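Lab notebook, page 48
Experiment: co-folding of the full assembly
Goal: obtain a model of how the components sit together before planning crosslinking
Operator: M.T.
Materials (sequences as entered):
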Amino acid sequence: MTTQSYVRTEMLGEKPPPSSQVGIVKWARENLFSSVPNIIMSILSIWAIYYILSGILPWIFQSSWNATSLHGCRDSIAATYGEGTEGACWSVIRERWQQLLFGFYPKELYWRPVAALILLFVAISPILFTAVPRKVMLFSMVYPFLGFWLLWGGSIWLPLSAIAGFAIGYAALIMLPKIIGNLGATIAAGLLPIIYWLFVSGPVISGLNGIAPIGIEGVDSDEMGGFMLSIIIGVSGIALSLPIGILLALGRQSPLFIVKTICVSFIEFIRGVPLITLLFVASVLLNYFLPPGTSFDLILRVIIMVTFFAAAYMAEVIRGGLAALPKGQYEAADALGLDYWKATRLIIMPQALKISIPNIVSNFIGLFKDTTLVSIIGLLDPMGLARAIPADQNWNGIVWEIYAFIAVLFWIFTFGMSRYSMYLERKLATGH
Amino acid sequence: MVTEIEREVDRSHMQVSDEVAIQITGMNKWYGAFHVLKDINLTVNRGERIVVCGPSGSGKSTLIRCINRLEVHQEGSIVVDGTELSSDLKNIDKIRSEVGMCFQHFNLFPHLTILENCTLAPIWVRGIPKKEAEETAMHFLEKVKIPEQADKYPGQLSGGQQQRVAIARSLCMKPRIMLFDEPTSALDPEMISEVLDTMIELAEEGMTMIVVTHEMGFARKVANRVIFMDAGQIVEENEPEQFFTNPQSERTQLFLSQILGH
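Observation: model returned without errors.
Model output:
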């Protein structure tokens, strides 16, 4: 016999939680004032934030936008906000923003870099977002040539001929395996385009120029500069360093001794040398090695060096991702009969890259900011201009405003990259 | 290690033919200086269901991994379906696409859905159109009784379900031989029987199977031959009834008394 029996006859309704458990009060209690040390820390932090902002915000907002020189700025700030007020002189940005963005690119042609930038976003959209129709990918493949043509201008036949080279390589890869086997076709696909570019493409271009001189006004590399230059070098470096880095990482793990040795030496050499050294090599030494008379565009040389540098780091980042994969994944791919390249493409790389996303994007961000080093070899990227503008008598002595502007430009781009990487990580998360 | 198998095994399709599926002759393998497999001779006819058992480190996993060349042997020959395993990559990929394998840790591809796991190899190795491959995959997923999980990712499935997917994935390649490398060792007891059940069904259809396992219940009911390995060599080989009731070698007797535990 139990006396503990109990039967509920009436179900309880829901009550709202006590007011200390909802909304901002609850949040503040839990996150700011949960204990004595926490309260002290919170108050100190709030004071520190106030202290910093109370110094910076007036400087930003009690500023001058319309002066034509630093003295003008100071006078106008003194007149508006009272004698002794320290304020930013944004007038220099107002006067020079075009230069900071485009360097010495001809003013009437600004639409071309702008168009190139907008089309860049179109071109990378199918790579970044799976929702974009796959057909846009065709445009992405043409974009490098289109972007180059828009920026540098000149004859349309040059980019078209470059495309033709790739088309020849692709055709060799598709058609030749039946005739000379897979290995032969791969080698042919590598060699034929190079032969075409070196010996055939020159006469073809001048021939076509003679028949149909279609083109837009050319712009010299000397005229390029500003943030545009950072984007050109940064985007090319990013786009090229990832595939090269992947190949280097795979090569480093290859059982083929020569391939492995070449990859390891490349990675260790490039990683062991400061980027600035490579840039000096690009700007000064490379000309000694090239045949006399070859003019090799400085920006192109810089892009190559930046790419090498980034690719070496990328290879190590991806190697980390490869090492993190369980051996069972390789074995399962092997056991299903997938050959090396299919296993790598379908099983290994998607997972290794996913693991490496945070590091890859970190490297991209680093690479993008490192492009400012080109100012040291005389290219007028934003940092180069930040030193050139104060040389103007009117703006002699100006420092912070230009650097702040450059910082904001870079931050917008790098913050975008960082957000995208977080989005991608969330999207690719399949484990539980 | 004896999971009770309640069901009756239908032996009507379990016929061993005279055709040789796998022929291993004088095979030796070393890891560095360590001699892991010593003079292995084994002939497997089509339709045979062979259970390989033995203490850990006896080389049983290494042996079946040599059959699809996940491990490379140094001496002797292995002929699978008339093709000799050599360093010729074409032969290796051909044999691997004919020989299915299930692993202790399933090794599903975590970045692909269950369906994609099953269709990947048929599409990329066999060149089967996607639609057809998906139909085949669904057929085999139904067979292992998890068609409703097709769009999930491996990480969302239980161990037993994952192993059944792994079996379905192998079957999608329509293999003529199936290798099982301790398929139930990483599973909870209740999941073991669902995987064993799937394997029994496969055996009932006449699949040639080599199974490395400690599941003696399975061996007794399904195998037509049990091989006992120790220290890298085949110590005893017999039909299950004889093997369990009348083991010849001392080593086998010791092993059986330990593993059967009574």
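Interpretation: The mean pLDDT of chain A is 88.
Next step: discuss with group before ordering constructs.
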